[in-house]
């Protein structure tokens, strides 16, 4: 049986030269993402905005969306979003946070139930009060920052500071682009989105570190090689792995997007964008070329390696 | 790298097998599960998003705790001053403290000493902090009692503990399976009840303080007059729950309270066939109720639940038997629920629902199905691709990943962790990422072989070098999962758990099983050429 080989052996792409294109592209995309975030804003779900969400189903084609709308509008609950989903008689109802504290939020469900009457299956009901939504939002933000911080510290211990900084800039870029994507497509931004962002962060770093690991190894072994060439060689030698892993993760995520159900749809779609489109691109075209600007050269690193004596020796296995 | 002693190989296989087998108790029918020995009674719990149910977070309001404490201080001060025979005026709650004016300046010192006894050490008599829960201060003839912030806080924590007990009693009466009631932070209670179609009854049961009091109705003026003018001292106007509400003028003095009930049962009035709740007092309550009804024959008294008048019957004869009934146009379910509430007792302070998430059983079943299909499709696609790319070594990778997934579920079962839909997504994602460790190893082997090493040496070097990278790259992902676990709740935490466990098992299988399988193959075939 002939095995599948996506990336041929001994590729020699000049990724470093490509940075003259990839850096401006990334800068442009980041600006677009930022503008989208500032103008369109994120579509905050009830986790962060508070309010009520009901997913109801009308059996046997009894759904009359206009009727549902008029019944709910008669309640005078402020902003009410009604959205038909799935085409199976299912409707998603979102009611904005009510003035009047926690009890007022609780009253909404009762009112909606009374208005819709009998013959409705309540598949999901979520009520988040003002206090909890405030907390969840700050938890989400603190969590993201905490994760970035912990990872930075870890990288700083394991690598030189240039690598830690390079990885963080690359990751910040990933997060910005993903948030921009969520703003443009108005994907629900809730706690699961924070989970998606953190996973994208973890995965993209994972990818970056595989390449950085190789760069570090090469730096110790080939002290005379020009930096450009060395970075290129590192990316090229890990390219096959990057592509294959990329395919397997894409396959897994594709299964989640297509079959994982609506409850995790926005989660899967966000991950698909962040991991598949952004993550790998970043590791190859942003994170690695960045090292040149951060002053990683074969000369400086070779000195460092000497200072770090025993550790470096252990890695220096004859090629 | 490729040498394993027999014992080491055996240990690796045994550990993997045992961890995988821990999932078995989760799969057997409940009857078999119950007959298992205790250490095997650990299983994966399905999250509420998969089995359907309600997740409710209740909060104790610190302001309510303060108000309750102020009212208690006021009543205690009245009792203390009366016992000490000190004349006073204007005993009332002013903002965050209780104030009283001592009529005779000469009594003020004695009164201060007496009122100081009301301040108790925080955390009970055995506490060593020496902090008191109330500041008592005197300014001329005015004495002010102010609950301290630390005092209110410790009472809040106490109130949460008491409330958890009472809520547990109430929910147990509903007869649902495996409810979970936990403290969340300093002032919250998290309630999870699986398999409820409509949580409104649950919320009604949790949201009521259920403070029951029996008090006399004041006949000196009508409620209307009291509303227009000022209600007489020691009385207040309370409403019934009729539509429109009927006002009653009620004495503040409590004849008997709900604490003195020993039992409450729903029933039917023999004459009217109307649902009622019958109750029995304890000895103390029975005596006080007997005395009060004896002294007030012909007068109406009111049964009050959470500041609503349920009914206000006239006392026709002294009630000496220590039992009675409450009727108030109840439906059968209302009578049932009231009996439950009275049996479980009153909450120390009102609780507020601050978060509610309910998933119906239909959506839960759909989610399980979706998760299952996504897992099967995702795993098969990844497996096929790996075999197509790496052939025999692909099969090794697939076996390693399959055992890896088995171990994820085994660990979940051992921890008694909750599996949610995002959790299933975490497993699917782990499959995608777990093969990465194999890809890293295999690609490295190929590279080493291309660099001119012999097959065995290339395989050995490939493992050695790739494992360092696998460790580095997975630790960062694990940090992200750990943070997520820390900040997340419910389904998101479920994702963090499976994803985090998945990373650990991935590193484990890469270091042990994948290597072991490769080693066995190398010893068996003695390859001259790397087959990938």
How is this structure best described in words?
- The complex is a heterodimer of chains A (319) and B (532).
- By secondary structure, chain A is α+β, with helices and mostly antiparallel strands.
- The longest helix of chain A has 33 residues, at 227-259.
- Chain A has helices at residues 15-39, 46-49, 65-73, 101-116, 130-158, 161-184, 191-221, 227-259, 265-293, 298-307, 309-315, and strands at residues 43-44, 51-58, 80-85, 90-95, 120-128, 188-189.
- In chain A, helix 1 (15-39) packs across helix 6 (161-184), helix 6 runs antiparallel to helix 7 and helix 7 packs antiparallel against helix 8 (227-259).
- Residues 307-319 of chain A have low confidence and may be disordered.
- Chain A contains 11 helices and 6 strands.
- In chain A, the strands form 2 sheets. A 4-stranded antiparallel sheet of chain A has the order 3-4-2-5.
- In chain A, strand 3 and strand 4 (90-95) form a beta hairpin.
- With 532 residues, chain B is α+β, with helices and mostly antiparallel strands.
- Chain B contains 16 helices and 19 strands.
- In chain B, strand 3 and strand 4 (97-102) form a beta hairpin.
- The model of chain B has no long low-confidence stretch (mean pLDDT 86).
- Chains A and B meet through helix 4, strand 5, helix 5, helix 7 and helix 8 of A and helix 8, strand 18, helix 12, helix 14 and helix 15 of B.
- Strand 5 (120-128) of chain A pairs antiparallel with strand 18 (351-359) of chain B.
Give the secondary structure arrangement, pairings included.
The complex is a heterodimer of chains A (319) and B (532).
Chain A: H1 15-39, E1 43-44, H2 46-49, E2 51-58, H3 65-73, E3 80-85, E4 90-95, H4 101-116, E5 120-128, H5 130-158, H6 161-184, E6 188-189, H7 191-221, H8 227-259, H9 265-293, H10 298-307, H11 309-315
Parallel strand pairs in A: 1-6
Antiparallel strand pairs in A: 2-4, 2-5, 3-4
Helix pairs in contact in A: 1-6, 1-9, 5-6, 5-7, 6-7, 6-9, 7-8, 7-9, 8-9
Chain B: H1 6-21, H2 24-27, H3 30-35, E1 45-46, H4 48-51, E2 53-60, H5 62-83, E3 88-94, E4 97-102, H6 108-116, E5 134-139, E6 142-147, H7 149-172, E7 180-184, E8 188-194, H8 200-207, E9 212-216, H9 223-228, E10 235-240, E11 247-251, E12 256-257, E13 261-268, E14 275-281, H10 283-295, E15 301-305, E16 308-311, E17 323-326, H11 332-344, E18 351-359, H12 361-390, H13 392-415, E19 418-419, H14 421-450, H15 455-487, H16 490-525
Parallel strand pairs in B: 1-19, 10-16
Antiparallel strand pairs in B: 2-8, 2-18, 3-4, 4-6, 5-6, 7-8, 9-12, 9-15, 10-11, 13-14, 14-17, 15-16
Helix pairs in contact in B: 1-13, 5-7, 7-11, 12-13, 12-14, 13-14, 13-16, 14-15, 14-16, 15-16
